[in-house]
Amino acid sequence: MALNEKTHLLESGRTTYNGSSSQSDVGYGNSLQVEHNENVAANDVRMRRTTWDRSPKSPEEVQQMGTMKLLSSKFESLDYDIVENSLYFKEQKQVGSKTSMIRRIQTARWFVMLLIGVITACIAAFIDVMIDKLAGAKYALVSKYIDHDLESTSILIPFLLWLAVDVGFVSIAAILVTFVEPVAAGSGIPQIKCYLNGVKIPHVVRIKTLFTKVIGVIFGMSGGLAIGKEGPMIHSGAVVAAGISQGRSTSFKFDCKLFQYFRSDHEKRDFVSGGAAAGVSAAFGAPVGGVLFSLEEGASFWNQSLTWRIFFASMVSTFTLNVLLSYYHNDPWSLSSPGLVNFGQFEGKDYYGYEIPIFIAMAVIGGLLGALFNTVNYRLSVFRIKYLYKRWMHLVEAMLVASVTATLAFLAIYNIQDCRSLPQEEVKYPLQMFCADGEYSATASLFFSTPEASIKNLFHDPPDAYSVKTLLVFFIVYFLLSCWTYGLNIPSGLFIPCILTGAAWGRLFGILINTVLPDAQLSDPGKYALIGAAAHLGGVLRMTISLTVILIEATGNITYGLPLMLVLVFAKWIGDIFNEGLYDIHIQLQSVPILPWEPPQLTANIHAREVMNQPVVTLNTIENVGRIIDVLSCKESKHNGFPVVDPHDQNGSTFGTFRGLILRDQLLIILKHKAYSTFPLSDASDHKLRTKDFQNSYPRFPDISTLNITHLEQQSSVDLRPFMNQAPYSVSEDASLPRIFRLFRAVGLRHLVVVNDCNEVVGIVTRKDLARFRVSGHGVGLEQLFIST
Amino acid sequence: MALNEKTHLLESGRTTYNGSSSQSDVGYGNSLQVEHNENVAANDVRMRRTTWDRSPKSPEEVQQMGTMKLLSSKFESLDYDIVENSLYFKEQKQVGSKTSMIRRIQTARWFVMLLIGVITACIAAFIDVMIDKLAGAKYALVSKYIDHDLESTSILIPFLLWLAVDVGFVSIAAILVTFVEPVAAGSGIPQIKCYLNGVKIPHVVRIKTLFTKVIGVIFGMSGGLAIGKEGPMIHSGAVVAAGISQGRSTSFKFDCKLFQYFRSDHEKRDFVSGGAAAGVSAAFGAPVGGVLFSLEEGASFWNQSLTWRIFFASMVSTFTLNVLLSYYHNDPWSLSSPGLVNFGQFEGKDYYGYEIPIFIAMAVIGGLLGALFNTVNYRLSVFRIKYLYKRWMHLVEAMLVASVTATLAFLAIYNIQDCRSLPQEEVKYPLQMFCADGEYSATASLFFSTPEASIKNLFHDPPDAYSVKTLLVFFIVYFLLSCWTYGLNIPSGLFIPCILTGAAWGRLFGILINTVLPDAQLSDPGKYALIGAAAHLGGVLRMTISLTVILIEATGNITYGLPLMLVLVFAKWIGDIFNEGLYDIHIQLQSVPILPWEPPQLTANIHAREVMNQPVVTLNTIENVGRIIDVLSCKESKHNGFPVVDPHDQNGSTFGTFRGLILRDQLLIILKHKAYSTFPLSDASDHKLRTKDFQNSYPRFPDISTLNITHLEQQSSVDLRPFMNQAPYSVSEDASLPRIFRLFRAVGLRHLVVVNDCNEVVGIVTRKDLARFRVSGHGVGLEQLFIST
Known about the structure:
With 789 residues, chain A is mainly alpha-helical. Chain A is 54% helix and 8% strand. Chain A contains 29 helices and 18 strands. At the A-B interface, helix 4, helix 5, helix 11, helix 12 and helix 20 of A face helix 4, helix 5, helix 11, helix 12 and helix 20 of B.
């Protein structure tokens, strides 16, 4: 078969992989056989701190990590499909007669979105103000020594002072992340992408994570690292949404008893979409971009009323932030700060049609630089996973990066004397350094300002504001630093460093063009800085429609839409030749079974029977309690969904006729409430379970080992029919992979039962079975990943 | 049952409705029994000119029309689901080994989108320039008589001249639409909404329609009607897309043999999405709004690469139009005309937080006015359908409206002497009228300018530019005229009249507020004009996220995002209390089975067995040719999809086991190519049919009556298995309506087979069966529509 020839089969030492061995979310078939040694326990504690899935890792598993051809079966999926069982139908019938309840729930949804928008904006404003204060304090402290006493005292004192402050600040952030909540590291966008895609990442939307993220990013930024606060805002928005929508906090053991209706994966994910959008909106002043981000990452199907609510949260978020920051800047209601980062006005900076080829050339450069960035960062990340997995190592590395950053900046300022006269408008942190009175050091302002201010400078300062040498050094230093920094145990956005690096080389490119073609009237290098920023961002992130819209909104000029879009597309195309976007690399390094937007090409000839897991563990419509306990307790294969079948004694068939689907969580609640009859195989169980019983246990269902079921009870039986999803989606074993894929993604499934011509259960398809097939490097091949247990 | 109590059962005179009588797209069950009389033939010709479905209508059917509780079974659906049969799999296998082909098709898709963008923009520019020229010529002609000879000659001469020109222009447009292509009437947005929703509207994407639309809108606008050219642009873009993507024109009998791969409903609809987006983009300079419009109306599932291409077409369209119009205005590369309509710069016009309640009050007014507008227009439309169905009547009505429009404008100008001194900047068409030298009549400029220019004036003219009387008269006159005009046999956009009406009362409101609260520093009524425009537009159209983004993009100021959004949401909420959006009203008047975004509420207790059609006409896997011909020729029930079953002789079951699905079009091609064996019931048919044979016949498949099949051939049999879709989606008869609905919309189905526990075909669900259930008036009830044959 053509396909198999294309499939790269990866054989690995002692480990037995089993490609099609996961039912439910978690591996069905054989478990990974590893030799345990004494170090396992010690390793456990250490390793669970560096990966997203938080489960103990053996040394062998550690060795496996760092390959991109692996899917971890430790990640579970969200249950986005609504369980339509008898209880649900009964409840719906009651709701039908109470239209006021429908209205109340609708109103509550809008109200929650309002809260999400407001609180996300408050957090954004808090971060912005705190960084402003801390950075201001640092500047005041250091500049006192630099400017005035430069000739009288040694340069060493301000340097050491600066170094100490930076390392101190960064240590606070690193300690928090390492010891309080490791999942708060990085930008959070990969994690939120996974969550919206339908994968549960443990702790990702906990309030502790929010706390760590916010404090961490404030100190990281103030410590002068090459990071941004925009990515973390998206994560923060998502956590706010998850928290508020549930009306309670498990961390704080607090339950306000509101919004109980929203306690399901389905509702929670909808709110998290809104929170992520509100975060984008607050970060970039880009409400439409925020909506598109959520749709792009999370959209199953275009849900009109949900999209409205997401849009509302976005709008409220940017508006609230605007009001708060306007107030902070002593100009209430000027409403000039829609987002944390602002590219300033590009009005009047027109481009000409014949510049478009130049822009595309820049996109090619951006794609190449981005691919380089990603390769270097990938290797660094693998190195970190393999060797730097102890907590103290994370801490030391963060401190090292902080020192190097401070040292390099200081060296650059010290060595490049790029003096400019102070302009009329304020320069926020003017450093005189070795310049004459009335002048300031351009190099210093670039290195010392907050990244956001530097971006605005690079975009809008007059053509001669920076020398070629300053820009070149800044570009190289910032490229290397940002590459090293991303992946540290620090909350760190990637947008701003990329924009800054790109703006630096873009401006450089603009100066170059002006030198080569002095007559072309392309006088403004700020325009090229913008294009360079887009190209670099596109090359590193390979993000997409939402990124384009975010950039257009941040630029505030619709005429730049076409060039920005072209640049992002070309940068993506060039970069994709070499590797994937940085977020995707980090997601794959964590072996998350994420589903792409479309079925991989060349899979039309792969059919359900080749994709599915079999044999399937099924339950009978009236099942023995002991058997259910056995199935749920099975250590090797922790399944989350079980097809319910009619017993298959009639035709001598080996399979049972498909009747419904029941989830592990439901079974646990049934057992907990003992909704079974003590007479074996009687279906007269007049249980009193209600939907609320299932909602109240969400999202922490009891473990099977904590349930206390007597031996006598184990003899009794339970009628699963009232609880099972009566008509879940199923496909024929002839269905092609793209067809299964489209169904799976479009309606947000967790389990898809495969039936034969007689409607008997022959297999089950889960997320990992589909995520296994991936387009290989150059866009047209196909490769298969392996599923670890 | 709670549901049935809520259902309004509509019983109608002699007509027997059958709620669940449509398999495939077209009614299964009993046909409507009507008495035919002699007038039927005469009515046929007339009626087919006024409805979208173009089929002959009996007088009884005419009587039925004009109710909103009917679905016509004459409309067919698009086949968006890919037919995955053996031929397809074989072809995919070949493609798999030729990666160059995948690349070529991908490149062709981008290239087609480029062409769509460029050509749509060219058409937009052509319309704009032609209207400019014609309106300019009219102005030159009339103003010569008005300004200079006002005192020497009678006022009658310029008035009659004006009247004659307007009526002449409008007649040209009305004649074209009435006699050449009636579907070109109106804005075209309802038709495109239906097409993107998956309903075939005959002739809607033909080149003849485009021609009629373009010429019609030019003459309609130049004739001074209260219409816009923006809606027609969206339709034009869609036609351009459909034409180019097919690489041929059936109207012109021209086939360039390119893009054969794109000859399927699936591919064509994707391109039409791009065309509609390019149209929005050209009309409003709103590329992101265009993308959202297409997604909102058409999106099944978020398809990432398609969305990119749609975005690309949008961007190219706005860019090309910008270049063309900049060139026309003698300022190449100023790139200041991204769209046909431009709201001008709102920089510097800030709003204050405490104005938001005022804006919401305006939204309430807008919602009420919009509801009034819709009710009046609805009654007018029903009147037109019932009584004004002859061609000459359409023509006369259009001419009447043109005369009344001209007369009212003239009377207003004549009676209201609102003289203003000529400002420094040019006023494009200054009319002195009875004013002193150096002054011009504000009333005249409002009535005489193109609507686009008037909008800009209302938004940006200084606070005292218009008297209260001028605004009030203009608002009332324009409200009535635009309401009367929409629905004429004229291509006519609705956006601009709504914006203009709203801007007029918004400005009035602003003046009022300033009088009541003189100290509140809300000095600029232009701001209120913008909010009024949004409120009115929201009240009439009830459009949605894309409308918000379009307005934000046209305003060019992101800070107005929140108020615009709030106003649109509130206007929609208020308006929805009374009736639906105008586009939806017109769609429902045409009885189109359009599917809403989400399943109607309160339907969770309705199950597949209550929704589906039964009995189903099925075909056996190896079927007799004679039986196929019988089934296809059946006049009463023209089905489009047939479940293929195993013969059901084994268990004595009345149903056959479900094996696949085959479409009418496929059967016709099989018969046409005689892909059957002459030996009865032999499956050894070594047919040579290929996918290309099916593609080449698209979209005009032969009629069954034109196929010449001998009596002997009718004895032979055909093996349907290689041609049928092997694993189409199916649901259990227990599946709930929302579950069926989500599947249906998310993957774009035309037929969904319902099976029982033994996988036997018991029914089939089509678009109309789902469209039947609709949320009733107040948002929480449920009503059922009736399906006519």
